[in-house]
Specification:
Helices cover 45% and strands 18% of the residues. With 156 residues, it is α+β, with helices and mostly antiparallel strands. The chain has a single domain, classed as PX Domain (2-Layer Sandwich), CATH 3.30.1520.10. The chain has a three-stranded antiparallel beta sheet with strand order 1-2-3. Helix 4 packs across helix 5. Keywords: Cytoplasm, Endosome, Lipid-binding, Membrane, Protein transport, Transport. Belongs to the sorting nexin family. InterPro entries: PX_dom (IPR001683), PX_dom_sf (IPR036871), SNX10/11 (IPR043544).
C-alpha cells in the first residue's frame, strides 16, 4: 500500500490585517484501504494541525505522536523562509502520521485530510452529532466540485 501526502502552496489569508494567517494545501493520493477517498485536496492552517495533533495524542494511548514544527513568534530571517520551513515540518508530521497504523485509525485524521469540515464540525461528526457520518462527509467532499480536480483545473 502506498500513501503520498504533500503539504504545498502556502497562502497568506487576510494579508496586511491583524488576523492574517497562512493556510496550506494538503494533497493526498493513496491506494490504502484505510482511506475512503483515494485522492483528496484540502486547505488547512497551522492551528488546525495543532488541534489534530492534540486529538491524536489523546486517542493514541502510549503511541508517540510526531512533533509539529514550532510556533515561532520571533523568527530570524524572511517570512517566506519561515513559511517554507513550517511547510516542510507540517509535511514531515503528516508523512509520519499516515505511516502509523494506530494514528491511521482515528477518524478525525481522515476528516482533517479528506473533508473541508471545520474543527467543530469534525468533532460533531466524530461524536455522531453531525448531519453525516464520517464516511458520508468524506464521500460528499470527494464527489462535490470542491475536491482536488477543481483545484488543479483552476490553476492558470
Amino acid at each position: 500500500e502506498l500513501t503520498t501526502v504533500r503539504v504545498q502552496d502556502p497562502r497568506v489569508q487576510n494579508e496586511g490585517s491583524w488576523n492574517s494567517y497562512v493556510d496550506y494545501k494538503i494533497f493526498l493520493h493513496t491506494n490504502s484501504k484505510a482511506f475512503t477517498a483515494k485522492t483528496s485536496c484540502v486547505r488547512r492552517r497551522y492551528r488546525e494541525f495543532v488541534w489534530l495533533r492534540r486529538q491524536l495524542q489523546k486517542n493514541a494511548g502510549l503511541v508517540p505522536v510526531p512533533e509539529l514544527p514550532g510556533k515561532s513568534t520571533f523568527f530570524v530571517g524572511s517570512t517566506d523562509e519561515f513559511i517554507e520551513k513550517r511547510r516542510q515540518g507540517l509535511q514531515q508530521f503528516l508523512e509520519k502520521v499516515v505511516q502509523n497504523v494506530v494514528l491511521l485509525s482515528d477518524s478525525r485524521l481522515h476528516l482533517f485530510l479528506q473533508s473541508q469540515l471545520s474543527v467543530p464540525e469534525i468533532e460533531a461528526c466524530v461524536q455522531g452529532r453531525g448531519s453525516q457520518t464520517v464516511t458520508e462527509a468524506i464521500l460528499h467532499y470527494a464527489m462535490s466540485n470542491c475536491g482536488w480536480v477543481q483545484e488543479e483545473e483552476s490553476r492558470p
